Input
Amino acid sequence: MTTPFKKPKNHPKFGLGIDWETSGSDWDDPDGSHKKYQGLSFGAVVFDVDTFEPIEKLYCELQFDTNKYKWSQEAQAIHGLSQEHLAKNGISREEAAVLLGEMILKYFGPEGKVMFLGHNADFDIKFTNQLFADVGLPPLNKHHVILDTSSTGFITLGLYKSDMLFERLGFDKRGAHNALEDILMTLETCKIIKGLMAFAMQEIYG
Output
């Protein structure tokens, strides 16, 4: 019989998951910042780190800054958000940053470090910090633990692309990517993989 695992002393209560849809990406950017392109929409979820259950959700579509950022038709084909749609329905970057900042302050405080969840989390962290920098706010204060379902999917199932991983785990085939739907599927992926691991450990060790 195995000894019960003890949580780390600094084990947080909440985590923050964010998924961004953007006007494009530049994987050849020397510093990996994708700075030529803008985040267009994000879905954010605060979750219980023990159960991976969502606690609070936020979805924002942002107005596009044509003077500062480039637009990629290839990216639009993925998320389906046009410049016309965002001009009509998007909120300002200042308002979006305030809404996200208030969520972070509510659960993590002004100095608290965030356990961050994403699929290819580094991409979403960079666009989150781009939003904050554009309105003069400090970057996300990251916890040393970053939860990334891209690497987890490759380790466990040999799948790192979100479409393939999510479908393998039983989610419906996606059409246009929606940032809130995507981060909720990312969160559910954690729950599924954790459950599979618990089942396997029980079978092996009893």
